[in-house]
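DATA SHEET
Item: assembly model
Revision: 1
Owner: S.N.
Input lines:
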Amino acid sequence: MTDRLDDVLAHIDADIGHSLERLFRLVEIESISTDPAYAGACLQAAEWLADALSGIGFEASVRPTPGHPMVVGHAGGDAGPHVLFYGHYDVQPVDPLELWNAPPFQPKVVTGPNGAKQIVGRGTSDDKGQLMTFVEACRAWKAVTGSLPVQVSILFEGEEESGGHNLVPFMEANKAELAADLAFVCDTGMWDATTPAVTTMLRGMVGEEIVVTAASRDLHSGMYGGAARNPIHVLCNILDGLRDETGRVTLPGFYDGVGEVPEATKAEWRGLGFDEAAFLGEVGLSVPAGEQGRSIIEKVWARPTCEVNGIWGGYTGKGFKTVIPSKAHAKVSFRLVDRQDPEAIRESFRAYVRAKLPADCSVEFIGHGGSPGVRLPADIPALVKTRAALTDEWGKPCVTIGSGGSIPVAGDFKSVLGLDALMVGFSLDDDRIHSPNEKYNLESYHRGIRSWARILAALSEGAR
Amino acid sequence: MTDRLDDVLAHIDADIGHSLERLFRLVEIESISTDPAYAGACLQAAEWLADALSGIGFEASVRPTPGHPMVVGHAGGDAGPHVLFYGHYDVQPVDPLELWNAPPFQPKVVTGPNGAKQIVGRGTSDDKGQLMTFVEACRAWKAVTGSLPVQVSILFEGEEESGGHNLVPFMEANKAELAADLAFVCDTGMWDATTPAVTTMLRGMVGEEIVVTAASRDLHSGMYGGAARNPIHVLCNILDGLRDETGRVTLPGFYDGVGEVPEATKAEWRGLGFDEAAFLGEVGLSVPAGEQGRSIIEKVWARPTCEVNGIWGGYTGKGFKTVIPSKAHAKVSFRLVDRQDPEAIRESFRAYVRAKLPADCSVEFIGHGGSPGVRLPADIPALVKTRAALTDEWGKPCVTIGSGGSIPVAGDFKSVLGLDALMVGFSLDDDRIHSPNEKYNLESYHRGIRSWARILAALSEGAR
């Protein structure tokens, strides 16, 4: 296996220019899933991926859903276990567009401030660049050996960024086809630019949109100001009351199921040498927000939060308009950990909002998905092998970490398909995902491909 | 004078169709002052008015300012006093456009639910229809008698809806030209559809826009949520803290200079038979907001308020985006009464915001104008004559009332030109000014023209 792996790695190095060109083609497709105007582009991205998989010998197809389609591919392998790989081809919106230094869907390689080559464009890191590391690793194994070390199935979805509700039903409806021994989810990052990581702890999420209506029409604040209810005031009062002065979320039952992190784990985290001041300073901040008395790593990996992700109401254009609007809107998300129940928290939030509402106001709730947090046992053999492969590639011990982001599919793999999901990815904290000028380091891409080539080989060891 | 007035009134009745056509031409001009995209339309409206005044014998011209232009016209009269008439040709934005039943700048006459003919379109009531009542009254006097009963100067501005800062400097720079004995401001309403009114009490206003900046860029709420400051949270906390649980504004010094309304005045107001439930019910509300223990009339005419007129931040499109934005924005206005000092309140607000701000956040303030409240003495001879003329036209005693809206020019006439300003207008509470489907009753327009014809005659009585 070692000789074959060396050949595969050499092939990857020789072919990296073509691998990059293929990634560019995928990034150029404007697959913004949250905006219905881009539904055609999402389909185009799915078709591109199915074609790419078919081209390297997968039995691959685009699979319709009530929303954006799935891509499913299967390829036999030389040995077990059977691996199910997950990525998502959809991307975040690009607003505010004026802050991009170049068009977001015209990817290019630039040299960053630290000399590192960066692939810039929407989705380069989240998640097109990441999922392509795996596709290109399979391509290299196929090109060099004609087969894969282990049996591989692939599932790409197109609604990860839009809280789509079609993934679980699709899994439910295709349980037999998606059966495997373990899953890999490629939507997480390295610990830092030189330290590979497997993410074993993820936060879940509940998304809620609320619309508060007061008067039946917009009012002149001169004629009505001081007498008529202003829904922006109502909304601000509701949102401000979600957290107390110590940063804790006030919803009844919110912390049910949240366990304290063991001291041993906290000690491991301290060993990571995380620089809180640098983490905040990199984005222009200096004062930790949120719950008092906890480290930033604990807050982001192991504590739930509530964030207002959007708010709007009244006149928001240039100049001034003395209006008391009829409606005010907000998008609110809760990040969940451990055994918090997403639907219980959604109901607690809605009950809290209703209780705060004046008698003549009304509220509409729009649910935007919910998923529990995930914690992966440390002793899974595949995790041990994967850490070893990553340690070999990067020349530095692979660590296991948490992530504050929500990757619902990791929980869904467990609950629907019974699969443990190993979260392996190569993005970096400074990749500006969800923000203007998103990038993916060329090294992440190149060594990410090499990493997967090694992981596939490692998984087959001992299985034969 | 009486014979001549009867002839003028008959002429007005005969010519009302043409008067309406002329108003349509003015309403068709999209003179939205707050949006720079409509600067050309504002100039066009000014030119149209100057031409209209020139056409009836005024010495009229468009006068440039650093913003939208003024229109100034002068016409000699048969006797004193010398009257300075004010109106504004600019209008509010039309959003939300989808709630208009017809294009806002294509005026037409429709029959309302109560059978009254309504002129529908943006600016029909605020303020193009109103100012045209005076122009058409002058036109009738000129057509019938060849002159006006009193000397008239006219000042039309184009920044009333956008907090423009050019009116006072223009008055300062043209004090001699604008000298007169008293001013009329036509931007207020009747008490109800059958009861004419002179408004003698107006609220002032301070407009402020604030931009709270936390991180230097938008952040992913998974990677940063619970550790990084969310400027929407900061903004909601600031805005929610502006009022206490009794509805009072919390800013230090806010109520300095606010006198209690005398019991006698409150008794007069009770005599108006104002129906609080109907006032709120007409816009779908039932619970009075604002300060506890005060009537709605007192709240709107004689009490200051704070309203958030616009708020925005984060993702506000369709779907969901898990972002912690870098910035959050709000537009806030304070309605002022009595002797409240606009600039002192602006400073108190800014100091309050700064004091609430976390150490690593910053705030930008954008001032949107400020003006004090106005109270007019009840014994001015011109006020007595004007009330009598309005009583004659409408067949019902003219009342003196307050208005919750801000008409800064009324205060400016006093402070800059030393003129008392009588506020006379014919709009109704259901005119939907600043809202979709703004209208002006045809009766308001027709009898408004007749009212001004009578007022001009009444002012000349006793002056000869």
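QC remark: Chain A touches chain B through 97 residues (CB under 8 Å).
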